[in-house]
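Fold it.
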Amino acid sequence: MSWYSWPAAGILLLCTLGAELLPVCFGTGSQARLDWSFAYVTLHFIALPTLSAVLLPVNLIAFIFRRSRPLTARLIDLSSVAVPTTYLTLLSCWPLPFLELLN
């Protein structure tokens, strides 16, 4: 298994869930039990989009140029592109999903 395909997509997915659960777990507004805003903004708008933008070309380049691997393994690696693509698409269409639901 490669470091760049599903392991990296899994880390991206777990970090995304962790960032989105910060307001749910620690509250919002004056009832917030912890100031989670810096971690949320850094993860949600800087770190995770950067990781997604790096994973997309890395996975596509690996799919194209690693022809020594079987096609099925390469296609499984290529399917991990769905996670960063979905993250970037949702970020551009619906930037604050859980915060809107909490208010």
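The chain is about 75% helix and 0% strand.
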